[in-house]
Amino acid sequence: MNQDAPLGVVLLNLGGPETLDDVRPFLFRLFRDPDIIPLPKWLRWLSWPIAWLIATFRAPKSREAYASIGGGSPLRRTNEAVAHKLRARLEARGLNVRVEVAMRYWHPLTEVAVARLKEAGCERILCLPMYPQYSTTTTMSSYRAFWRALRKARWAPEVTRVLDYHLDPRYLDCVARRIEAALVQLSEPYGDACVLFSAHSIPQDRVDQEGDPYPEHVEAMCAALAVRLPDGLKWELAYQSRVGPVEWIGPQVPDAIERLAAEGVRRVIVVPVSFVSEHVETLEELDQEYRHLAESLGITQFLRVATVQDDDDFVAFLEELTAETLLGAGDTACRRGAERCICAGG
To answer: 241-293: per-residue pLDDT in tens?
Structure first.
């Protein structure tokens, strides 16, 4: 292995439409993913027409949602800002590094990131998912896309995969600081207040049939954050963004808000624990749809905690995680949910 070759870092995320015209093709890519809508092998030829139908049906409502947040998703801008800051920090350590953003369903797509790293001469790659918790619907899907891109490029670098970091104390510190900043607006006593942790839902059969650890990861992270809350401030966990008629993990956020209001809660602090960036699920679903629901039910204060975005403390955490994982702290990295492999498929 060439010791002078640059190190490669890939930030994995789902991506999002940047304009209203991007919405339907984005949805088509999303629902064509077999990790989102699994089909038996003998029915996989239906993935394209099914994805087309769902995308066509959902596009008008999704366009309205994106229109309400400025006409497109900010995910690309945020992730590229993270990549720029992370590269600057790593170069300040004296590392020769390339940092690329790889989106699962929109640009810049995974194969573009792989092509850029190959062209740069990278021989070692670290994949950092922008999903704190592991799930087959996000982390695994992004890694499968990454392996396909490697095979297509006929390239076999050494790849280290971070699988999750929802319980890394440094990441928990980042989230806790934002909760503390929001709680400044909340006066004592806390009898009529509740912290509502919100996570993106996934289909229940992913948990029952495939053993997806996502709910366990979410619950563990919420429990770790809850011990940092002020005494007397209660908390709950609920899930958002359910799609379609199949059963999804719950309870759902709207149901939780309705129940809390009926129990006399008048102040709610929502903490989006499965997102590191602002996007349509935070800016429209939480900030608009669920806020209006809460207000209609008599909740007088609805606070939403900010995500970590490209803030310096989050980028500093990614810098430390990258450096310790790529520079030989293999055992430490593995305990934090990383695994190293030399492969072009998996």
So the answer is: 988 778 999 999 999 999 999 999 999 999 999 999 999 999 999 999 999 99
Please say if the pLDDT value at position 330 is more than 90. Answer: no
Give the residue among 102, 237, 109 at the shortest CA–CA distance from 159. Answer: 102
CB 233 within 8 A of CB 192: no
Partners of 11 in the β-ladder: 101, 128
Question: Which pTM does this prediction carry?
Answer: 0.91
Task: Return phi, psi of residue 60, to 5°.
Answer: -60, -45
Domains and CATH numbers, the chain: 7-165+312-342 (3.40.50.1400), 169-304 (3.40.50.1400)
- Which residue's entry shows tokens 């996007």? 279
What's the pLDDT at 220?
Answer: 99
Of 225, 122, 244, give the one whose Cα is nearest residue 182.
225
- Orientation angle between helical segments 312-326 and 169-183, nearest 10 degrees: 170
User: Which amino acid is located at 81 in the chain?
Assistant: A
Neighbour order of strands in the sheet with 193-200: 234-240, 193-200, 267-272, 301-304
Q: Alpha-carbon Rg of the chain, whole angstroms?
A: 20
CA distance 318 to 109: 21
Mean pLDDT over 202-213 rounds to: 94
Report the distance separating Cα 71 and Cα 64, nearest Å.
Answer: 9
Q: Which amino acid is at 104?
A: R
